[in-house]
Amino acid sequence: GNSVIAILAGLLANKAADYRPLTLYDPSAADTKGIMSYVYVGGFLAPFDIAIVVLALCGCLSLTLWDENYGDQRKRDTKSSQSTNSLSDDAGPSNSTGESCFSGFSGAARVVWSNNEIRLAGIISSLFEGSMYVFVFMWTPAINTDDEEDPPFGFIFSTFMVCCMAGSSFFSVLTSEHSMFQIKTEAIGIGIFATSAILFGIMAMSTSTSLTFGCMNVFEVTVGMYFPTMGILKSQIVPECQRSAIYNIYRIPLNFIVLMSLLTDLTPSQSFGVCFLMLSLATFLQWKLMLQRSSGNNGSIWYVERPSVVDEEQDENIDIEAKTPLVNSV
């Protein structure tokens, strides 16, 4: 649903930007220094004007149709008091309603510092999502050539969203329970980060707009695969009683990466080169995370073996024999 809306939004934005050129709202105020001399309409401002209307409509709908979700306090207290794993002991008391924000944040910070898997998951997600935001900032100047006519940015954005939706569908295929070999989520993460690093390396060195645009589309496929992959990993690694606080800690290095990309005056090629380095590091850390989570487990670290048809029939025969009552012979 979200991908379809994003695709339609890109098409609508492209039509709105082409409908009217960027002009001064009141041409008679061009020679004055009043506020109307700074008001423009049309062009690339039109999609943002439409977004204001849509957001206002969404706000009205949420106020009228949504009720406040206070949750079940009794169930929440029960879950908080139970230890999901040994991490809760290291973090001290759980983040209950009466605790201060600082106490909950410090407890979550101790959990992140004491557990290597949680720490690796946070660094990996920050590196990839930071690269994704740098891509959001830089894809427009990277494909905007010196031609007189600007590229159709709305159509390009819709193409990105189609690729992102295809990536989500491809993830479902790789993790399908009906396949003989179900690829592990950690292994999919390695493929995502390694492929993304290669793509950014190509974009950093490429002088062809067509090649750069092709790499951008493939990267959007990896973005569509990343979110369900990391969502599953975080749900398995991060304790539920402190999940919101730990996710906020994950935002700290991510925001630092985004700020550095905005404050530095890097060209698109230089920015893509930095993304190549970050994603290469993310690939290495994902490899370490996979090895750590697979230690002590038998079988492949890349996929989950499904029992064959013969094994399933043997298991069914064993169950039948176990349920069949014994008859004493005379």
Helix proportion of residues, in percent?
Answer: 55-70%
Kindly name the structural category: mainly alpha
Name the beta content range.
under 5%
Looking at the chains present, what oligomeric state does this protein adopt?
A: single chain
Shape: globular
Per-chain topology:
Layout: H1 2-19, E1 23-24, E2 40-41, H2 46-65, H3 73-81, H4 87-91, H5 101-114, H6 116-143, H7 153-174, E3 181-183, H8 185-205, H9 209-237, H10 243-263, H11 268-294, E4 303-305, H12 309-323
Antiparallel strand pairs: 1-2, 3-4
Helix pairs in contact: 1-2, 1-7, 5-6, 5-10, 6-9, 6-10, 6-11, 7-9, 8-9, 8-11
Description:
This protein has 330 residues and is mainly α. Helices cover 69% and strands 3% of the residues. It is built from twelve helices and four strands; from the N terminus they run αββααααααβααααβα. Helix 5 crosses helix 6, helix 5 crosses helix 10 and helix 6 packs antiparallel against helix 11. The C terminus is likely disordered.
Label this structure with key terms.
single chain; 330 residues; mainly alpha; two-stranded antiparallel sheet; two-stranded antiparallel ribbon; 12 helices; 4 strands; 3% strand; disordered C terminus
Brief overview, please?
69% of the residues lie in helices and 3% in strands.
